[in-house]
């Protein structure tokens, strides 16, 4: 099975200049645990902001995140993979880099996102057949 077969195509994005509070609002509204940070220009890289990165910022700033933007705490460039590879390689990347999500990129354009949960759910479907 390929990454493109199970990836989520609808992803939530946010501007790198948005505040952390704005990011939290979007995450709550969309019921997601991660946001893709938009590129600032065509040759830029995508980033990612997660609950974990927000919690690290809260801890580092001793709770005062008023002046922080998404850009300040996002992981950039986000780790990415092609949609044309087998999901076992996405799983291997997640294990090797200790991450839960990988962006799916083709020609420096965002195509989707794949998570550990997506891979596990595909395995459940496979064994249920």
Give an overview in words.
This is CBS domain-containing protein. It comes from Persephonella hydrogeniphila. Keywords: CBS domain. By secondary structure, the chain is α/β, with parallel strands linked by helices. The protein has a single domain (3-128), classed as CBS-domain (Roll). The chain contains six helices and six strands. The protein has a three-stranded mixed sheet with strand order 1-2-3. Strands 4-5-6 form a three-stranded mixed sheet. α2 (20-30) links the parallel β1 (13-14) and β2. The mean pLDDT is 92.
Poorly predicted residue ranges: none
Report how far the terminal alpha carbons are from each other. 15 Å
Kindly report the name of the CATH homologous superfamily. CBS-domain
Profile the largest sheet: 3 strands, mixed
The CATH topology turns out to be CBS-domain
| Structural domains: how many | 1
Total helical elements:
6
Based on the coordinates given, report the CATH architecture.
Roll
- The fraction of residues assigned to DSSP E strands is 15-25%
Element-level helix/strand string = HEHEEHHEHEEH
Largest beta sheet: what is the strand line-up? Answer: 1-2-3
Tertiary shape: globular
InterPro entries: CBS_dom, CBS_dom_sf, Diverse_CBS-Domain
Protein name: CBS domain-containing protein
Organism: Persephonella hydrogeniphila
Keywords: CBS domain
Describe the secondary structure blueprint for this structure.
Blueprint: H1 3-6, E1 13-14, H2 20-30, E2 34-37, E3 47-50, H3 51-60, H4 70-73, E4 80-81, H5 87-97, E5 101-106, E6 109-115, H6 116-128
Parallel strand pairs: 1-2, 4-5
Antiparallel strand pairs: 2-3, 5-6
